[in-house]
Amino acid sequence: MSAKRQAADFEPVDQSDYLEFVALGGGNEVGRSCHIINYRGKTVMLDAGVHPALNGLSALPFYDDYDLSTVDILLISHFHLDHAASLPYVMTHTDFKGRVFMTHPTKAIYRWLLSDYVRVSAISSNDASTLYTDADLNASFERIEAIDYHSTTEVEGIKFTAYHAGHVLGAAMYFIEIGGIKILFTGDYSREEDRHLNIAEVPTERPDILITESTYGTSTHQPRVEKETRLLNLITKTIVNGGRCLLPVFSLGNAQELLLILDEYWQNHPDLDGIPVFYASSLARKCLAVYQTYINMMNDSIRKKFRDDRSNPFQFKHIRSLKNLERFDDLGPCVMVASPGMLQNGVSRELLERWAPEAKNALILTGYSVDGTLAKQILNEPSEFSSIAGGGIKVPRRLYVEEISFAAHVDYKQNSEFIDLVNATNIILVHGEQTNMGRLKSALLSKYKDLRQTENEVKVFNPRNSEELRLPFRGVKVAKVMGSLAAKPPMDGQIISGILVQKNFEMSVMAADDLKEFSGLTTSSVIQRQSIAVEVSAELVKFHLEQMFGTLKDATVGSGIGYTIMDSVNVFWKPKSIVIEWAGNMLNDAIADSVLAILLSVESSPMSVKISSKPSHCKAAFNRPEKIERVLVFLDSQFGSAVEPMDNPDDGVYINIDGHIATVNFRNMDVICSYEPLRSRVTHVLDHAVDTILPFDFGKEESENSDESSSSITIKGETN
Questions:
Q1: Which has the closest alpha carbon to 679: 691, 689, 670, 666?
Q2: Using one digit for the tens of pLDDT, what is the confidence trace for 468-516?
């Protein structure tokens, strides 16, 4: 990435608390829209367009700046080339492995529109090179999944819902939820009522982040009625003067809106019957067929005409379709609605070069003109411009140029009102030239200045292409208790013990017996057995195990001698081998490892002697300090650094385990501790110390002359 920008009001717990946003295209520019959202290991790509002013690889978003193999889903907002034309390239020429979604009308138009793009690109390119072929386009088409408006889809923990965007037929804004963070991506959207489309909807939920277009910055559109009046007056004036009107448009989008306006105007003015109106596009008939098919997705006005009047508004009475210019007789005044809208190539460019030298003709730009295109250049009314034929040929410009925008993009008033309704505290501006975007950011910051330094502060960002924006979010983890554990509400302070199951970002706590029903998971119990060759007696095995684990439970089966250790591990003795058996889990495995280590050392342990039938008696003289020293050795081996001597070491020690303190009195071997598990453990250890190492009576106080006294120690074993 070329740069990183970070916004934080707190220090996140870890890096997964950051939501990362990267504009691979459409950052401080209009064209090649492509945005990446990454949060908690999930990645969403929004749109995959090309730049209308550039060709070949240079028209692509900066795909090399991001690992596209990590993208989980790609959402296409609408079919316009600057939002969808590089999708086949992404799906067939990169490491992208995710799923692709768009609305049904967008998918219906996508194939035709991009097929035409491939054809036109090959014709206009000097080296006949294109980003992809028809075969790539067909392969990508098969993998695209169509979705309905207002239907929520979930993929690998990512939820998204499509809403009407009002820009073109099938245009969608996406409400996305990842790990509890909600994001609204508007794409290109319109809040202005027109003749055929619904206005952009406001989602019912409030997002944390709003990603919105800034195409017109702080500009305000002329009222629609005034725009239509200006357009029709200019067309009428040009025709009366014997001129021709050229209206460059996208094949689909504002073209249909203009055709509805012109068809209605010609219907209401019979005197214009002799003046032809053409819709020149290689996709003209196919495009109109799509609009006729999806009338149910248009506004009430269109649906009412179709329902009540039994007429299809897109079966125009005064509009003629032209697939190309071969059959066009350019003999007199006419109105030509032709694609493409940026005048870079195609029918609109050919007609412009043909009609530009005559002052009686008019060019009316009805859409947004992107920087770097001929449409943007000609707004400055140059005296000439370069011919598409190349070779330094210049075309004189004498025709009249006027911009009357019917582009279905929000202006500042509509955009700011929508932002208020959405009520997000983080706003990311995209799809706008640097100047317009900067002005909009300043206007929004000024509008929300009273909220600064409050919990409702509104932050506005306008990242450049390939600049990583990182927004911190403190996620709250909530687990739902399910199954038998949820049979009754817990008491205050009660600890719920169960298995935590996480699927993507949803967590549940349930009992093991409920796993299959509530999570779809099944459980298995693995019984592990291990045999070792040890030729020792069962009594000696029991003796060594008791040194470590205390009291053993009898697990004798028939004639086989067995012991159960800590209710977890069973040990079965045979004359020449020992079998260890346990149910595999983390705790039992650790206990079994300890048992195995003890059994492997039984034969070599100095304390292991063969049991004799007759005990021998011998004298072992220990003075008091020596006795205490041997007890301490045993305590240290069991409790380590937790053993702390009293002020007088001969009196006893303290054993501090996790804040629980046991007091050991060396005078009478008493153990005092309020925590029963620790008291029991220490008492057991001292009992074994006395039984195995120092069998003397601590209950009798020794005199000052007892240093030389002796105690009787009985040792069972062989005698020499």
A1: 670
A2: 999 998 766 788 898 888 888 888 888 888 889 888 788 889 888 888 8
SS3 23: strand
Q: Which H or E element spans position 206? A: none
- Tell me the C-alpha distance between 187 and 77, whole Å: 6
Q: Is 169 exposed, middle or buried (0-12, 13-18, 19+ CB in 10 A)?
A: buried
CB 131 within 8 A of CB 86: yes
Consecutive H or E run containing 10 = none
Q: 340: cis peptide before it, omega within 30°? A: yes
104 is catalytic: no
Residues 6+ apart with CB under 8 A from 4: 467, 468, 469, 470
Nearest to 26 by CA among 467, 366, 471, 470: 467
**What percent of the chain is modeled with pLDDT above 70?**
89
Q: What is the pLDDT of residues 47-62, one digit of tens each?
A: 999 998 888 899 999 9
531: enclosing H helix or E strand: strand 527-532
Contacts of 519 (CB under 8 A, 6+ apart): 501, 503, 508, 510
508 beta partners: 480, 501
Strand ranges of the sheet holding 670-672, from the earlier edge strand across to the other edge: 643-645, 652-657, 660-665, 670-672
> How sure is the predictor about 189, in pLDDT bands with cuts at 50, 70 and 90?
very high
pTM for this one?
A: 0.71
Q: For 319, phi and psi rounded to 5 degrees?
A: -115, 130
The pLDDT tens digits of the residues spanning 369-412 come to: 888 899 999 999 999 999 988 888 999 999 999 999 888 899 99
**Structure token pair of residue 645:** 């001597």
Q: Which of 35, 80, 409, 544 is catalytic?
A: 409
Burial annotation 346-375 (CB, 10 A radius, 16+ → b, else e): bbbbbbbbebbeeeebbbbbbbbbbebbbb
The DSSP 8-state label assigned to residue 388 in this structure reads T
Written as six digits, the tokens of 278 are 């053409």
User: In Å, how far from its chain's centre is CA 53?
Assistant: 32
pLDDT at 85: 95
Q: Using 50, 70 and 90 to split pLDDT, how confident is the model at 610?
A: very low
Cα 10 to Cα 6, 7, 13, 15, 450: the distances in Å are 11, 9, 9, 13, 21
**Dihedral angle sign, alpha carbons of residues 625, 631, 637, 640:** negative
Full DSSP string of 262-316: HHHHHHH-GGGTTS-EEEE-TTHHHHHHHHHHTGGGS-HHHHHHHHHS---TTS-
- Average pLDDT over every residue of 653-677: 87
If phi > 0 it is left, if psi is from -120 to 50 it is alpha, else beta; for residue 550 that is: left
